[in-house]
């Protein structure tokens, strides 16, 4: 039985549309989506480890991770119902401004996340699974409007062999290095003249076909995506047992 496990943030698991992971998952016998919206790369790494503890990966399994932006704070808080994360820390209302000013550090986030991604790659190779690395935005920038700080080039140099394995990001392939709102989409209702910043189903299909051409999609899957309308029942594969 072919098994596929996906990891990421809201670009990987959505409540109102099929994502790149849901599209690929249709081509496997067994599919679980361990992503959650708003979470960062530390959460993604933890989910990878827990998933292996539960399922015991084998050489027949396929693991695809879409790494997200680096400026995210993930923490497990029992009183907040487990894992807690709300996206970019610099835009957060959940942390005092004084705390953000003192403790938030883009260079520190980069050091943390590139080490985690490198460790994930080493583990996936050790487990002997088939794996691919994707990205929401180019690894190393905070969000779509950010750029890479040249002062952090030493960190990129240290992990350049690992970074070479990450496929071009959604921001590059679908949004052409422009703000999310500049690419028209008729899928979801506009909000104050702006579109939802997540890829719509057809954009997710375009992304899969561009960066993962080796995954052959059936015509049934392509038709499913092209015919999916806002308000249709989205896949619920992300509702899996986890800590």
Account of the protein in words:
The chain has about 240 residues and is of the alpha/beta class. The protein has a single domain, classed as Rossmann fold. The chain has nine helices and six strands, in the order βαβαβββααβααααα. A four-stranded parallel β-sheet has the order 2-1-3-6. The chain has a two-stranded antiparallel sheet with strand order 4-5. Helix 2 packs parallel to helix 4 (about 105-125). The radius of gyration is 18 Å and the shape is globular.
- Helix count equals 9
Output the CATH class name: Alpha Beta
Task: Give the averaged pLDDT, no decimals.
Answer: 93
Assigned CATH architecture: 3-Layer(aba) Sandwich
- Total tally of structural domains: 1
Label this structure with key terms.
alpha/beta; four-stranded parallel beta sheet; two-stranded antiparallel ribbon; 35% helix
Explain the layout of strands and helices:
Layout: E1 3-7, H1 20-25, E2 30-33, H2 41-55, E3 61-67, E4 75-77, E5 82-84, H3 97-103, H4 106-127, E6 130-135, H5 153-158, H6 160-163, H7 170-173, H8 201-211, H9 219-227
How would you briefly describe this protein structure?
By secondary structure, this protein is an alpha/beta fold.
């Amino acid at each position: 039985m072919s098994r596929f496990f996906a990891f990421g943030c809201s670009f990987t698991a959505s409540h109102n549309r099929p994502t790149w992971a849901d599209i690929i998952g249709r081509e496997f016998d067994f599919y679980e989506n361990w992503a959650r919206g708003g979470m960062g790369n530390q959460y993604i790494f933890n989910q990878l480890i827990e998933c292996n503890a539960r399922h015991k990966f084998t050489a027949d399994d396929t693991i695809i991770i879409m790494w997200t932006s680096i400026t995210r704070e993930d923490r497990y808080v029992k009183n907040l119902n487990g894992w807690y994360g709300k996206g970019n820390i610099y835009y957060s209302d959940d942390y005092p401004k004084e705390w953000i000013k003192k403790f938030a550090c883009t260079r520190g986030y980069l050091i943390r996340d590139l080490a985690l991604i490198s460790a994930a790659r080493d583990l996936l190779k050790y487990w002997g699974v088939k794996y691919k690395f994707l990205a929401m935005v180019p690894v190393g920038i905070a969000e779509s409007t950010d750029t890479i700080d040249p002062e952090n080039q030493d960190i990129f140099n240290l992990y350049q062999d690992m970074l070479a394995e990450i496929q071009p990001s959604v921001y590059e392939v679908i949004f052409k290095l422009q703000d999310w709102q500049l690419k028209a989409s008729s899928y979801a209702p506009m909000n104050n003249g702006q579109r939802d910043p997540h890829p719509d189903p057809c954009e997710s299909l375009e992304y899969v076909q561009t960066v993962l051409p080796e995954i052959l999609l059936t015509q049934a899957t392509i038709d499913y995506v092209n015919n999916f309308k806002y308000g249709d029942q989205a896949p619920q594969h992300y509702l899996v047992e986890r800590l």
